[in-house]
Amino acid sequence: MPTWTQRCLVLRPPSHFSFFALAAVSSYAILTRFDETRSMNTKRGRLVVLEGIDGAGTTTHVARLADRLRKQRVPVHATREPSDGPVGTLARQVLTGRIVVPGGRAPGWVTMALLFAADRMDHVESEIEPFLAEGGVVVSDRYDASSLAYQSISSGAESKEAVEWIRALNRYVLRPDLTIVLDVAPDVASERRALRGEMAQLYEQNEVQRALAAFYKDLSKHVPGDRVVVVDASDSIEIVHEHIWTVYERAFSS
Ligand SMILES: Nc1ncnc2c1ncn2[C@@H]1O[C@H](COP(=O)(O)OP(=O)(O)O)[C@@H](O)[C@H]1O
Ligand SMILES: [Mg+2]
Predict the structure, then answer these.
(1) How far apart are CA 229 and CA 242, in angstroms?
(2) How many domains does the chain contain in total?
(3) Residue range of the domain that includes 58
(4) Which domain CATH number covers 60?
(5) Which atom of ligand 1 approaches the CA of 184 most closely?
(6) Residues with CB under 5 A from ligand 2 (ion)
(7) Which of 149, 150, 133 is nearest to 75 (CA)?
(8) Rounded to the nearest whole angstrom, what is the distance from the C-alpha of residue 17 to the centroid of ligand 1?
(9) By percentage, how much of the chain surpasses pLDDT 70?
């Protein structure tokens, strides 16, 4: 019968061996994992924005695009403006008439432009940037083009200066990698809104929508340097989705 010390001596060589083997395998695993994480973090994601008048289909198509990307195992975050953050929630309450100024009307275009710009900075800092840093694709239902369009049009006669000022206000927000404008006749959009059956929000009067449609067709003029593609959104949801997918693939296939 071997003594306890003799047993340990017999066991020691293989246990040393296993210890080193285990250490080598785990360091390799840790290093490889670290490398993968690092390469994932160095690949920056992209910000894709869908814009258009009310009823053009931005909400529908943000969801469709995000679903298709998810099916391809692309990490995707679908979001919207006004955002679901604290400032965005306030902006939504103005749009639905829950917040008014004394006298019962909605705050004017200057207040709205400031509110939307504050929400956008908060949205970028707290939601968009962190996701892009992880290499994901952020698809946003509206972004700063909505501020340029909606607030400049509601400024009336001062619309040219308003565009300049709103651009300056949004000077520090991240530029999108692609903006897709869903172009649809205001009458068609109005029918779609009626079918949606929700209460009309601020800006949903027909003459405002007509002015917005014209502004959106010319959007690239107001955001020089951005990649803006106008897509015909008058067809069925399926066909419009295919147009959007083609534009997305073309923009990022290189
Ligand atoms: N291409 C389309 N053809 C027909 N109906 C559509 C189309 N795109 C959206 N819709 C419908 O129109 C309504 C408004 O779409 P929505 O995505 O909410 O528009 P938006 O977000 O631009 O206001 C919804 O009921 C939606 O199902
Ligand atoms: Mg919508």
Answers:
(1) 14
(2) 1
(3) 4-37+46-251
(4) 3.40.50.300
(5) 1
(6) 59
(7) 133
(8) 66
(9) 83
